[in-house]
Amino acid sequence: MSGIDWKRPLEDVLGDDATARRQLAEHAQLLPIADARTSLRFVLARLREHWVASLATLVVTIGGAVAAAILPRLIGSAVDVVAEEGSSAQVWRLGAQILTIGVVQAVLMALGWAMISSLGQRILAGMREDVIDRALDLPAQTMERTGIGDALSRVADDVDLAARAVNNLVPNLIQLGFLVFITLIGMATLSPWLLLMVVIIVPMYVLAAVWYLRRTAPIYRQERIAMGARAQGLLSAIHGIPTVHAYGIERRETRHVAVLSETASILNMRVMYLVGRLVMGLNVPENLALAMVLLLGFVMVQIGGAPVGLVTAAAVYLVTLFWPMMAVIFNLDEVQSALASLARMVGVITSIDPAASPGTERPRDASIRLEQVSHAYTTDEDGAERVILHPIDLDVAPGEVISLVGASGAGKSTLASILAGTLEPRHGRVLHGGADLARADLEAVRAHAAIVSQDVHVFRGTLREDLRLASAEASDAQLWEALRRVDAEVWAERLPAGLDTEVGEKGQRLTAEQSQQLALARIALRDPAVLVLDEATADEGSSGARVLERAALEVARGRTAVIVAHRLSQARLADRILVMADGHVVEQGSHDQLVARGGAYAQLWGAWSS
């Protein structure tokens, strides 16, 4: 990092790396970031949920601060007793009181630290669950648009920063804050003259803090954005390792991640520069305060006739005040970072709630209806819309099997996602069983319709656990029946421990064909009324494709099914075929009708057959 020019403009760092520029621009506006007021309201609401623990923590923390504020007065009294040649009994009594109050302060401060940390961890645990819940529940199109980097950064980096703050920073700041407040009260009540120091010195610390916060807040925001973009770039490179090796673009990908890393590092170093300037500036109020306490002490004793003990107490108060105020200022760096992470977490929790149902309508049957449905994406360059699906009206009867065919980019997957209810169209209405999805109970819709794509994820765990994701209460007999229906029973029985075999990451590696069969077996267990198969057999060879086609047709039997067909042999068995081109449905009908018509489908079938 020492070789990085932190003054270098970020535009020069990014250079001609269009990918890095695009990802930074995307991560600057993808998932929402809460403002300070929203974050504060959220934290206060969580504190109210734990009001008993919050109240107890407050009492203990204030008690520790009060004990700390009593000590300077006792020390001043001891000085007066010695100066006035008081009895040794008085000195011992004051010594015992000082020792007792010191022990009480230490116990209360330690207990308060533990209570604040414990309360913070409980609140953070709930926030972590909420962030992960929101991230996992984001609409598919949102994740496709944002990429996983920003969501992963919020679930991992931001939660980690917040956890460290809760363990160390938050207890320290809360205790220091109360200590400063109680100490200022103690100084003011000790002598009205000491208010002069409070009025002059404290605002200087406040101004220093404000100066620092205003300059570092936007830098921290940029840094968090850069970290999210860096995570996305790194994940993209790792997931695409075979392609990276195949095209020999290792240096390009490495440079891309390095640019994003350098951007984050430069922003961090700019903050460190501001920290250095802040530390230099704080020498002024500190030295001024020391000079003032000496001057005021001299005037109060020599002219005002104040006891030496009072001035001693004032000096101890001042030294006691220096440490927590300086500590608060020095921790502002971590405060800003933690607040930036908190705002990103709260932004996801409060501004996005994909699980919240827009209405209460529930599907009454397995029919699907599209009314003037179209879809478009906004391009990154000029903000113009790129039309993916032109307006379409479509009625799918309960139990009907339709197949979508056409060239790549024709709009098949977009239409399939809209039919499944996982993609909200830009225009038009989608009805499942008469229920408008814009006003439907989402949980009911998700139970009503399911989609299986060619990208299937096998979760880490036993085969039994993976299957029960679709039906938590399914018996082993039901699991084996689902596997049998998709022709997976044979290979499942050959697994080392049958249903208890670990699969997924670090477990038994399943082939692409077996993974697809597992996904179809989940559908058999879940038993949705509507099933969408988005090229679920596209990546298999001839033998594997035939097995998966049989499995898909078996699972689709008795349901309303939409099949995005990669092979026309699969489309041939559908009740109705929709031929798509450039976002339009150009033909529809049964296989025999379309072949007899001699149009686009007939040409596709002729090429396929030959």
TrEMBL record:
Alphabetic keyword roster: ATP-binding, Cell inner membrane, Cell membrane, Membrane, Nucleotide-binding, Transmembrane, Transmembrane helix, Transport
Coiled-coil residue windows: none
Compartmental location: Cell membrane
Membrane topology: Multi-pass membrane protein
Transmembrane stretches, start-end: 51-71, 91-116, 169-187, 193-213, 287-304, 310-332
Cross-referenced SUPFAM superfamilies: ABC transporter transmembrane region (SSF90123), P-loop containing nucleoside triphosphate hydrolases (SSF52540)
Protein name according to UniProt: ABC transporter ATP-binding protein/permease
Source organism of the structure: Candidatus Brachybacterium merdavium
